[in-house]
Amino acid sequence: MNGKTALGLDANIGAMLCYIANIIPCVVPLGLVYSIIVIIQDKTNKLARFHAFQSIFLAIASIPLMIIYFIGFGVAIAIDSVLGFPLFFFLVWLIVVLLGLALFAGVIYAAIKAFQGEIFKLPVIGNFADQYSN
User: Fold this and answer.
1) DSSP for the chain, written as a single string
2) Whole-structure pTM value
3) Mean pLDDT of successive 10-residue segments in the chain (134 residues)?
């Protein structure tokens, strides 16, 4: 697990970049691009491959969550327009903020564990990443 990645980075740095590059706002999702490059180029480094797959699966899992958020906001706005005050919109907003903070904390924690050279499995997607990284 130690050593260099196929891209010349230390394995723990490469694994951490899979996550950190996803939270840096930019036009191209750098974390996804970097993770795909790691998966294609690095066939032997388990640490980098595991975290690359887990980062990709985490990004993929966030897409349906965003769709559910938008639907929830639409329903909340419709209900609140009937009620005349923004109760449901506030509740949906609060849930979205709390889930977003939990997701952000999970990404930061996974990045720290990757930097420490550990294979830390996030709930549900960690097992898939472990299967695909072998």
Assistant:
1) --SB-TTSSBHHHHHHHHHHHHHS--SS-HHHHHHHHHHHH-SS-HHHHHHHHHHHHHHHHHHHHHHHHHHHHHHHHHHHHHHTS-HHHHHHHHHHHHHHHHHHHHHHHHHHHHHTT--PPPTTHHHHHHHHH-
2) 0.81
3) 74 88 73 87 87 90 84 88 86 88 89 92 91 88
